[in-house]
Amino acid sequence: QKEVEQDPGPLSVPEGAIVSLNCTYSNSAFQYFMWYRQYSRKGPELLMYTYSSGNKEDGRFTAQVDKSSKYISLFIRDSQPSDSATYLCAMITSGTYKYIFGTGTRLKVLA
Amino acid sequence: NAGVTQTPKFQVLKTGQSMTLQCAQDMNHEYMSWYRQDPGMGLRLIHYSVGAGITDQGEVPNGYNVSRSTTEDFPLRLLSAAPSQTSVYFCASSHGQGPIAGELFFGEGSRLTVL
User: For A97, which of B101, B103, B109 is closest by C-beta distance?
Assistant: First the structure.
């Protein structure tokens, strides 16, 4: 069993839809949770970062962490064609440098 | 500001050949790392370094060597290329301060094909 599971998609939604992307994990020692966005043939870039259970908002993006269920989510409101990319969750334990990434979910927002 | 620069962007090798993927960053980051990205496998950590002269293994280190002689550079060496090493390789760096490594800044990737 992988430490981090993520549905690979692809996920196609119409412009303006609310998108929900999810990851589950098995290692309860993970304390820091991130979402990276990767456009085609580019390197990933950090989108959201959180270290506690609950919600964190940044514009149209909301990151949600439920440590009791070992489940994290990224919500995108009013999705745009420019949001079409692969979204990777990542997590790490305190005091280490070994990030563990999910496989990524490919999202396509249709105009 | 160039950020993280990887060279070459594309490379084709024959089985058994050796080569070095170059990675340089100009952000004075202490932490640097190499990942490979394969379909259905996500990003997997190969090797990482927390400063000049200090390296450690990640999840999939076999067949790869690294060294860190300067803060700026972190080359990845393939000793004897195998078709299983066909992948997209990403170098990433962060300031590495505090309890975690911090935000990772990625290069644009090096696409390697081993025939």
Answer: B101
Hey, is the C-beta of B33 within 8 angstroms of any chain A C-beta?
yes
- Beta strand extents in B1-115 (DSSP E only): 4-7, 10-13, 19-25, 31-38, 42-51, 54-57, 64-66, 76-78, 87-94, 105-106, 110-114
Query: Does B45 sit within 8 Å of A43, measured CB to CB?
Result: no
Q: How far is CA A91 from CA A58, A64, B5, B56, in A?
A: 19, 13, 24, 19
Q: Which of A32, A96, A101 sits opposite B43 (nearest CB)?
A: A101
A58-100 tens-digit pLDDT: 999 999 999 999 999 999 999 999 999 999 999 988 777 788 9
Token pair of A31, please?
A: 């304390």
Max alpha carbon distance in chain B (Å)? 43
Task: Spell out the long-range contacts of A93-96 with Cβ–Cβ below 8 A and sequence spacing 24 or more.
Answer: A93/A27, A93/A29, A93/A30, A93/A31, A93/A32, A94/A31, A94/A32, A94/B99, A94/B100, A95/B99, A95/B100, A96/B100
Neighbours of B101 (CB within 10 A): 25
